[in-house]
Amino acid sequence: MLKIEETTVVHEFSPRMYQQFQEIVKRYPPEQPKAALLPILHVVQAAFGWLSVDGMDKVASYLDIQPIEVYEVASFYTMYFLRPQGKYMLEVCRTGPCCLVGAEKIMKYIEHKLGVKEGEVTPDGLFSWRGVECLAACGFAPVLQIGPEYTFYENLTEEKVDQLIEKLGGKRSIEANQQLTN
Amino acid sequence: MGRKLLLEHIDVEGIQTFDVYRSKGGYAAVEKALKTLTPEEIVEEVKKSGLRGRGGAGFPTGMKWSFLAKPEGKPRYLVCNADESEPGTFKDRFLMTKIPHLLIEGMIIASFALGAKTSYIYVRGEMMPQIRILEKAIAEAKNAGFLGKNILGTGYELELYVQPGGGAYICGEETALIESLEGKRGNPRIKPPFPAIAGLWGCPTVVNNVESIAAVVPIIRDGGEEYAKIGIGRSTGTKLISASGNLVKPGIYEIELGVPVEEFIYSDEFCGGIANGKRLKAVVAGGSSVPILPANLITKTINQEARLMSYESLSDGGFATGSMMGSGGFIAFDEDQCIVRNTWNFARFYHHESCGQCSPCREGTGWMEKVLHRLEYGHGKLSDIDLLVDVSKKIEGNTICPLGDAAAWPVASAIRHFRDEFEWHVTEPRLCLERNYGLAHYADPLPKPEPAVAV
Ligand SMILES: Cc1cc2nc3c(=O)[nH]c(=O)nc-3n(C[C@H](O)[C@H](O)[C@H](O)COP(=O)(O)O)c2cc1C
Ligand code: SF4
Ligand code: FES
User: Fold this and answer.
1) Is A99 annotated for ligand binding?
2) Distance between CA atoms of A154 and B332, rounded to whole angstroms?
3) Side by side, which strands form the sheet with A127-132?
4) Is A98 annotated as a binding residue?
5) Closest by alpha carbon to B200, among B138, B107, B116, B128?
6) Are B348 and B362 in contact (CB under 8 A)?
7) Local confidence band at A176 (pLDDT 50, 70, 90 cut-offs)
8) Which among A72, A99, A136 has the least Cβ separation from residue B85?
9) Class of domain B18-229 as given by CATH
10) Residue B447 · residue B347 · CB < 8 Å
11) Where is B316: in which H helix or E strand?
12) Considering only alpha carbons, which residue of chain B is nearest residue A149?
């Protein structure tokens, strides 16, 4: 269920972000700035890792639309996070074709390795993970992606997951988390 | 080896860049189109080519273009559907990654043919790397004078933009895509009016799949008639097939339409057979939305003829014994796969992706998911199987958009062809948790067709 948490968080937009907004709005007819909403929300999420109410309200006033028009979009699409996530959100495909070649095993392995359930964040804030639907890479399955640049990792094995988590600073993180949770 | 029209040059070093693409004959079709053809003549060539939409529905592209309304004083739009999210389909992502300029070139020709001065490529939001690739390609093309004002000195002007989605399968449906591009939730619109009359911002709009747009390039370069010589019957040209599942060589293959399914699965030129020396149990031939077929019906039609990779042959036998070409997402299941589990997985997918506007889809997909879940885990009843058929029938045809049908067909077809496996999950509630039903009789030779009785 959707919860809009941390309503008190304030997200200050940098001048560079406003510049990006301006560039985006230019793609549409002048009377249709709302079309910029999805791309602008991506810019905001890339900057802060999630969309706060304050951030969404700022977007609404920038585009001169009602805040609800932003909330309803942000809550409809799966890419937008309405609460803080781990710095690295591992999104593993859990749809049919990936499951034929072991996606479920990989998800279990990640859960075990990170020691947190789907959708939860490791205590040090570094990782979270979730199952997502077909990532249009079924021939290279199992696959996972990591935002905000959506880097792709294909033909996953347990060893590859180990290496990936290691590369992202996971070894220290996992040890620290074990201490925190024990 | 079959002819390659889209992927011919993908292994050329640097083909992602404008210069290399151009040196391989790229953008010659734009020059030909803008300098020697009228928009009407381009539409005519595309009609002659017989090209059918590659996004799933297979509607003839030339005809779709000719329906576009041309009222005075209103802009027209071309929107490329690059939202690729149908489970089993991964060709558009591949094409945009490997040879982005082919899509840009196709967009310029198609926009000119339709009289669009601003066009959008709506890319699935997760495809951030592809978005960057396309943006770079657009900048290069603009730099070289193929986009912007007065293209090639012809007076035609075109701006091309990439729009990211937000992660929602339903935005692949063309009216949901338009809503999403307008900055709203991806709720499909009630039709009519069709986008050809009132689409993006109420203006006449054509939505086409990435592969359809790319195919326009060889069609204009070689002529529609040449294109139509490839393929079989009303399935002209080449098609990208995304092959996944338990295959020796899963991946993307450009086939000449009409290749026998058996050859596609087993020959070394294509998938190289079933992985790990296993046997084939079932195939979903056109993406998760099309009916699943057991091994014996995918390689042969009910009349014992070889089944071909073509729109007609894959649908031979209707839904009773056939399936559909769909988006060309070819998913192979080996003898160890559980059909009940996969059907549950797909039902979960459609439930998750339903936009929730119509109650048959919103409630029906959730209900099917729940019932399939209990069957999969050995808590089901025999009556659940008929219940699923009943629910799927109540969804089919009763919804605003085809996602309802897409959710109903996989369930109905799985039960049609694999009913004994579903029943086994009820009669063997414990065993079904330990092992799978196996290949059973699903690859057995088909019964001889009834001889035609002379009257
Ligand atoms: C639920 C749903 C999802 C769809 N997803 C896609 C998609 O990801 N890509 C696509 O090209 N077409 C998709 N389509 C088909 C489009 O609505 C549309 O028919 C297609 O983009 C038209 O292009 P074409 O004529 O070139 O095939 C989808 C349709 C439905 C009902
Ligand atoms: S069929 Fe489903 S996805 Fe399509 S409009 Fe209705 S509820 Fe939405
Ligand atoms: S099913 Fe996993 S990428 Fe398509």
Assistant:
1) no
2) 19
3) A127-132, A88-93, A144-146, A151-153
4) yes
5) B116
6) no
7) low
8) A136
9) alpha beta
10) no
11) none
12) B128
Distance B224 CA to ligand 3 centre (A): 34
- A182: pLDDT strictly greater than 50: no
- The CATH classification number of B240-334 equals 3.10.20.600
CATH 3.40.50.11540 range(s) for chain B read 18-229
Q: pLDDT value at position B27?
A: 98
Q: Stretch A132-156: mean pLDDT, rounded?
A: 95
Distance B169 CA to ligand 1 centre (A): 10
Which residues of chain B, if any, have pLDDT below 70? Answer: 1, 449-455
Tell me the pLDDT tens digit for each residue of B410-428.
Answer: 999 999 999 999 999 999 9
Task: Give, for ligand 1, the residue of B51, B64, B174, B175 to mutate: max count of ligand atoms closer than 8 Å to Cβ.
Answer: B174
Has A93 been labeled as part of a binding site?
Answer: yes
Q: Read off the tokens for B416.
A: 């049609």
Q: pLDDT tens, B54-92? A: 999 999 999 999 999 999 999 999 999 999 999 999 999
**Ligand 2, residues B354, B391, B392: which to mutate, most atoms within 8 A of Cβ?**
B354
Using alpha carbons only, give the angle B337, B342, B347 rounded to the nearest 5 degrees.
Answer: 175
For domain B339-434, give the fold: de novo design (two linked rop proteins) (1.20.1440)
CA dihedral B425, B429, B432, B437 (to 10 degrees): -40
Of B166, B244, B337, the CB nearest to A80: B166
**Length of chain A measured in residues:** 182
Select the residue of B128, B182, B349 nearest A150 (Cβ to Cβ).
B128
CATH 3.10.20.600 in chain B is located at 240-334
Tens digit of each residue's pLDDT (9 = 90 or more) over A13-47? 999 999 999 999 999 999 999 999 999 999 999 99
A6 pLDDT exceeds 70? no
Cis peptide before A142 (omega within 30 of 0): yes
pLDDT at B47: 98
Question: Which domains occur in chain A, in start order?
Answer: 4-76 (1.10.10), 88-181 (3.40.30.10)
Q: What is the crossing angle of helices A37-48 and A67-76, to 10°?
A: 70
Whether chain B has a CB inside 8 Å of the CB on A130: the answer is no
Contact between B7 and B240 under an 8 Å Cβ cutoff? The reply is: yes
DSSP A87: S
Q: What percent of chain B has pLDDT over 70?
A: 98
Asked if residues A114 and A126 have their Cβ atoms less than 8 Å apart, the reply is no
Asked if A81 and A121 touch (Cβ cutoff 8 Å), the reply is no
Do A86 and A121 meet the contact criterion of CB atoms below 8 Å apart? yes
Q: Which segments of chain B belong to CATH 1.20.1440.230?
A: 339-434
Q: Does A9 touch chain B (CB under 8 A)?
A: no
| pLDDT top residue among B110 and A4 | B110
Reply yes or no on whether the pLDDT at A178 is more than 90.
Answer: no
